[in-house]
Amino acid sequence: MRFLLLFMMFTLLMPECKSSQSVESSQRTNQSSIEKKKWLSLAVSQPDEWYATNEAKEVAENVLLYQRNIGGWPKNIEMHHKLTDKQKAEIVGQKEKTDAIFDNGATTTEMRFLGKMYKAVKDPRYKDAVNKAIDFIIAAQYDSNYKGEGGWPQVYPLREKGYTSRITFNDDAMIHLLEILRKVYHKADEFSDIVDDATATKAKISFDKGVQCILNCQVTENGVKTFWGAQHDEHTLLPAVARPKELPSYSGSEGTRILQFLMELENPSQEIKDAVVAAAEWLEKVKIPNKKVVNVTENGILVDRKVIDSPGDDMWGRFIQIGGKVGQEAFDALVNGYLKKGSKGGFSYRENALSSYDPTKTSQPIYSIYEADRPNLLYRYLYIFEDAEPVDINGVSTAVSLDAKTRIKYQYLGNWPQKVLRKQYPAWRKKNGLD
Fold this sequence. Notes:
Elements: H1 2-35, H2 39-42, H3 54-66, H4 85-92, H5 108-120, H6 124-140, E1 167-168, H7 173-186, H8 197-217, E2 220-221, E3 224-225, E4 231-232, E5 250-251, H9 254-264, H10 270-286, E6 288-298, E7 301-317, E8 319-320, H11 324-338, E9 343-344, E10 347-348, H12 349-356, E11 391-393, E12 396-398, H13 404-409, E13 413-414, H14 418-431
Antiparallel strand pairs: 1-4, 2-3, 5-8, 6-7, 7-13, 9-10, 11-12
């Protein structure tokens, strides 16, 4: 009888043991799978139930650890990777650093992750961290002391040198901030249980200023509203330079995302409608019809990109030259300001720009090269995508076109606006009674 009772107890416990083993196996598999993912894709794309797991809580501890005391996060960190005790101590020692940034999805991604965590696990630390980040975003926004009031720099606090203080549309940084603020003032999605009325009101004011900054930054060329650059000067609102390959210009990529954002706004004002129509008309005007860029591979390896004929496709430059008086003003600001003292290896960046800029290339794609080991090419304006013979400048062989290595490294040409113009824009016009 005693043996029978023991046998029955063992039998009853077996399913539980099997289930436990299954869960542990599943957790190990899931751990392996998230380690292989990138933080930016993992952070806000997991099933809702995952954010209540111990695994998610461990990741959240890392995210809290990396938050700087000013409220934001540094970029390009795989925050879901396990940390040693030594690494954790080092990160704690970096809390006072002012390297929090809005570039590459930093800060906004961590906020959304912690918002999802708080919906699943009501840990007040997650809520506090998000609210601290909201305050950081609002504090970083340019105020009325700047012509670019309502815009955001790439980095805050502002740095004395470099381009990080420009109003940053590059990599959709400012659009990401506005999307976050829109969720905050609506108390929507992952922020529904986090935001109080006072914070929502502050976020709405900040959001409205940001939208107005976008409208103010839209370039007017020869009296006609056109498009946006990847970054704009916070004092003049002119499109501005960033890295050597990102010359003052319109941006076919970032500008298109701005256009999409404006079309997403409910009950748009007449000013917003006018901005959208002008931007769409400009994109149609400067498109390169019946062309597209394709990858060239050999044995599965990308070796080049080339432009081919493609009936029905349209193509735009990532950077497109500005014309008229404003184009000249943007170029003058580059050579007489940013590049006034810049040089390397005996080559003047200012002379590089002056000798290569062609003001007649209005609305054409422009290229430049970012390679520190070729200073004679830094900040040079190039207008040829395909291979072309270099020219001799002061005894130095100098490129007038991109080469295969450079074409691979950066997407200088693309069809970013094509779907927007063919589907989203017509639907937007109909919705807003413009047809």
